[in-house]
Design goal:
Elements (H helix, E strand, L loop, with lengths): L9 E5 L4 H5 L2 H10 L4 E6 L2 H7 L7 E4 L4 H12 L4 E7 L1 H9 L4 E5 L2 H5 L5 E3 L10 H12 L19 H15 L8 E4 L10 H15 L3 E3 L5 H10 L5 E3 L6 H9 L3 E5 L2 H8 L4 E4 L5 H4 L5 E4 L20 H4 L3 H12 L1
Parallel strand pairs: 1-2, 1-4, 2-3, 4-5, 5-6, 7-8, 7-10, 8-9, 10-11, 11-12
């Protein structure tokens, strides 16, 4: 496939806020540099963790921290981006798009409305994402990026996602934290459990208790919990499963140490969230608990063992789980269902 129109061009692609939203775009970034190595690729990230997840990838030339507070920041950003040959906005950013158009960006593509296309803002307009439609987000998002650059998305053969690798020093720092937190003198292997989600439902305690007992019996290794604050949860589990060696690192790691934690784990147990994408991108076998969205939307192509009730109302069609009276996506997943995916990962 010809990419001659992009040779030597400066390309800017902005992503979304979360780590997972950024990592799902990496197959498009990787393939773009493979077919057009002379282009200069800059990726915009709105949050520091997402920026750090991308900044060490060899096929991204630059990662830019995006401003998104107030009209002034959008004007400054548009002016700074107006020198790029191609600008692709993967999210709905009408104010930024308007200024980019006014500042003369010729090849501007992004998510918008029909009236904005008629006004000439966009050379290529991609559809607004619909969280109520169960489509594969990785393939859809990467396809939108390629169409925005006048490329054929069939050129993307591998949809496995990538993530920045931690350094040896960051891995050692994390290793020492686990030893101190667990009162250990040595550590051969461990399992990471990240039971909390931002938009997805958390893994309920009724599953975590038998999970801790099962992993302790099968693997006999420390179970390291990570998240916003899981101290109350791990304290309860220690009473219920005293034989399990539980270590709580919630709130005790920086971003790259978190990457090291997931990279060096024997297995990871997560919800449908950023840690799932990071762990799978780093090659760790991951059991992922899906509720508000089905695996077909967000499950990574490699290393992922989904747990799902496979209900027809997922993705949520009622405005979110807070408006749901029965939560079938959660309540239909019992320990037998969860254990099946754990056993598949441990084979």
């Amino acid at each position: 496939m010809s990419a001659r129109h992009l040779q030597g061009k400066k390309i800017f692609i902005d992503g979304d806020r979360g780590i997972g939203d950024m990592l799902v775009l990496t197959p498009a970034f990787r393939t773009l540099k493979e077919i057009c190595p002379s282009c200069e690729l800059t990726v915009g990230a709105y949050e520091l963790p997402a920026l750090q997840a991308l900044e060490r990838l060899p096929y991204i030339d630059h990662v830019r921290k995006m401003e998104d507070r107030g009209l002034g920041s959008k004007i400054r950003t548009a002016w700074q981006l107006h020198s790029y040959d191609y600008v692709v906005l993967t999210g709905y950013r009408p104010v930024l798009a308007r200024f980019l158009h006014y500042f003369g960006v010729k090849h501007l593509s992004g998510t918008g409305k029909e009236k904005q296309l008629r006004k000439g803002w966009f050379e290529v307009m991609t559809p607004q994402s619909d969280g109520k439609i169960a489509r594969n987000v990785v393939r859809a998002s990467c396809g939108d990026v390629f169409r925005s650059l006048h490329l054929d998305s069939e050129a993307i053969r591998d949809y496995a996602c990538d993530c920045s690798l931690p350094t040896v020093e960051e891995e050692k720092s994390l290793h020492d934290k686990i030893l101190r937190a667990g009162g250990l003198t040595e550590l051969s292997e461990y399992v990471v459990i990240a039971p909390e989600g931002f938009t997805a439902l958390n893994i309920p305690y009724r599953l975590l208790e038998p999970l801790a007992a099962y992993l302790q019996e099968r693997l006999d290794c420390p179970l390291v919990f990570m998240g916003k604050d899981t101290r109350a949860l791990t304290a309860k589990l220690k009473e219920a499963v005293p034989e399990a060696r539980l270590i709580d690192l919630s709130g005790q790691t920086n971003v790259m140490e978190m990457f090291a934690l997931l990279k060096n784990a024997a297995y990871a147990i997560t919800v449908d969230s950023g840690p799932m994408h990071i762990a799978c991108a780093l090659g760790t076998k991951t059991v992922a608990y899906f509720t508000t969205s089905p695996p077909v939307m967000w499950a990574p192509d490699k290393c992922c063992y989904p747990v799902s009730a496979d209900v027809d109302c997922s993705p949520c069609k009622k405005g979110g789980p807070q408006y749901c009276s029965d939560r079938k996506c959660e309540n239909l997943i019992d320990w037998a269902v969860f254990k099946k995916s754990v056993e598949e990962a441990l084979r």
